[in-house]
Design goal:
The structure holds three protein chains of three kinds.
Chain A: H1 29-43, E1 50-54, H2 62-65, E2 69-72, H3 78-88, E3 93-99, H4 100-106, H5 108-117, E4 121-127, H6 163-170, E5 174-179, H7 183-195, E6 199-205, H8 218-221, E7 223-224, H9 233-242, E8 247-253, H10 269-274
Parallel strand pairs in A: 1-2, 1-3, 3-4, 4-6, 5-6, 7-8
Antiparallel strand pairs in A: 5-8
Helix pairs in contact in A: 1-7, 4-5, 5-6, 6-9
Chain B: E1 2-3, H1 10-22, E2 28-29, H2 33-45, E3 51-54, H3 56-72, E4 76-82, H4 99-104, E5 113-116, H5 120-137, E6 140-146, H6 147-150, E7 202-204, H7 218-233, E8 242-245, E9 250-255, H8 259-271, E10 276-281, E11 283-285, H9 289-295, E12 301-306, H10 312-319, E13 327-331, H11 340-348
Parallel strand pairs in B: 1-2, 3-4, 4-6, 5-6, 9-10, 9-12, 12-13
Antiparallel strand pairs in B: 5-11, 8-10
Helix pairs in contact in B: 2-3, 8-11
Chain C: H1 12-39, H2 43-66, H3 102-126, H4 130-157
Helix pairs in contact in C: 1-2, 3-4
Classes of the chains: A alpha/beta, B alpha/beta, C mainly alpha.
Amino acid sequence: MTGQPPAIPLKAKDYKSEIKPVWCPGCGHFAVLSALTKALAYLALPREQTALISGIGCSSRLPAYTEVYGFHGVHGRALAVASGLKAARPDLTVLVAGGDGDGFSIGGNHFLHACRRNMDMTYIVMDNEVYGMTKGQASPTTSPDWAQSKLTPHGTGIPSFNPAAIALASGASFVARGFSGDPKSMTQLLVEAIQHKGFSFLQVLSPCTTFRPEQKNWKKEVHEFSGETTDDCVAAAQHIQIDDGMGAGIIYRRELPVWQPVVDPTHTVAELTRGFAL
Amino acid sequence: MAAYPITPASEILEWLAPNLEKIGGSLLQAEDELASINMIIGGSFGGVPSLTATSGPGLSLMMEGLGLAVTSETPVVVCNVMRGGPSTGIPTKSEQSDLNIALYGFHGDAPHLVLAALDIQDCCFTTQWAVQLSEEMQTVAIVLSYQSQGQARAIIDPPAEAQASGIRSTAPAGTDGYLRYTLNESGVSPMAVPGTAGCIYTADGLEHNQKGTPSSMATDHLNQLDKRLRKIVHYNYGSDWAITRGEGENIILTWGSSSGAAFEAAERLTQQGHATRAIAIRLLAPLQRESLAALLANGKRMIVVEQNHGAQFFQYLHAQQALPGYARSLARPGPLPIRPNDIVTFMMEEF
Amino acid sequence: MNISITSPIESVAEFLAHAEALELESVESYEQLADSMEVHNNPEIAKLFRKLAHFGEKHAQEVTELAKGMTLPEISPWDFKWSTPDSPENASMDEAHYLMDTHQALEIALINEIQGQQFYASVAATTSNDEVRKLASEFAGEEAEHVALLKQWQANLGNQDALPLDDLDPPNIPE
């Protein structure tokens, strides 16, 4: 638990804004919003001390629906904005949200380096294996034979991206997978991810009811993660490869050095200026 | 501050990294320019004045982020140390050919500030002024510098201090009915810094209403476009937007790093009996058109000097209808600098 | 769909904490569904979901009345004792679709209310606390009334096929 609960404890509802989501009825993201607000209420995080940063996409609309400081930036750059914010304001709890296209395709480079930098923030990727906002194209996590997009009429033919494996290999210190159809567990994962000191990566399988209606079956396909939570990255890598990608739970958790710029002023500007004297 | 190494801007970064730390700042080495611009947007959103330095190719990568900063009204400053372009071009030599991207590189209507340092000493003044203006107006400022400034050492007098307030308007805790993008006369709306209770908002790169909620309504779009333009057009920039040296009916008009040659050419021409004034513009956008018209009054001959192939400055001024019909263009690309003698010779052809 | 509880509920306060969460979440979810139906231009179904939200609202008020003067325990979101991954009356929200008709909406509501009923019945069946049993049975009874009411609405609707909703610019054109 971080900090003392305020005088009147906030309820999950107090972390929701008045803005009506644009998400389709039946979208998995509603459950993520609900679980996130429950997690924030459970942690009793002061709303003004929390910031939720996102890029572009259906899931990236999340900040406006929450009652914390938000930044809805451009496609793929949420982690960069969040890293700058955390560097400038280490006192804030920084959360980042987005989708599989935003995080793994256009924002892929930032994903690698945010994992590697291991700043203290939580990255929630709502993965529905499709670009929803642009009306149904294949994303990096789409299976190679999904041929429902006009853009890739024969399927992508490219093996899909394994977010957990990449996060682990890039140095993330907390790697977990959740499922929007299991809000109870997802809330707990979110709490653990936010409490973890360092870069926490939480992939949430969140079905797209409109472009991937077959994902309704995820309810039957999602299962407990095949391996025990470990702090051994070799074991975690093995677990990830053995799992079919539908296993939910904390995969890897390890205390690693958290990066934050050193701020220890020793000089005044005038002193620096005097350094230029001839 | 966040940045990605690039020639010829790395010297700025390498000096700043150890020295910013000493005064409580920090420089974060980003994974690329897309990251560095968005990182400083994040830092500035957090209430800390933020800037980056780069060169042409890096500026190209930053343009989308700069549009975000304009729309979300997050103040940031980019110092662009120009080199020969386009593409990788001539990384180790100077050119004044990034004016167009600095002025026009945005998609959409994106009012912002463009400034240019006149010489090595002026880099301090102009950058400081840019930060002050950007903070006051919550907008983007692009400062154009040059390889010949960025990678040179010189003995200079202590630079002047820019005199704008540089104070960002912020919202106090518990502001009733706080609207981040409220419409008012100045166009500058108080920006709540995260940590301020009762003023929670979501900054947005999507067009938005006064509260910040995404909106595609015609009125919101028009109102917010007007707001973002109004705040930089109505600002009183004072007299630092340009420098004039000498007087006479012959005019040399220039900007940035060609200023030194222009000033010297004006002196030589005047000594030769052709009274000449040289005007160097520091604030390129928004162009102080009326003030410029006043400076250009009573001219008889005029040349517009710049170091690029496309006469970008000349065309810009024409597009703004800021030039008299008799103005002629002296535009030469890098990597060789424009010399005073080139300008004198060109002007003599006018007689 | 057969809901149970993970362990017996043995105090009135704990029961009311569960009931409060269940009913409030039910209200919130129906309201949210109604909102998203409005956003997606399906006003009929939006209206229906608003109506369904009132079921829970009434129930939540009852719970608040009963809980007056009591301190309800703070239960971690994942420690609620229903066996479902979400609170019982939320279970089928992901079956919603922007083109759904009244038949389909009622089907979702029916599943939710049945699950609510099953939860309360299961609490009543497993508790050793007489007062909890009494309250849970009452609540189960009220949920049963909702179930009956929904079934009646379904019957009234009969087989009359409402015109299937059509989207002239559908998101995916099946080929």
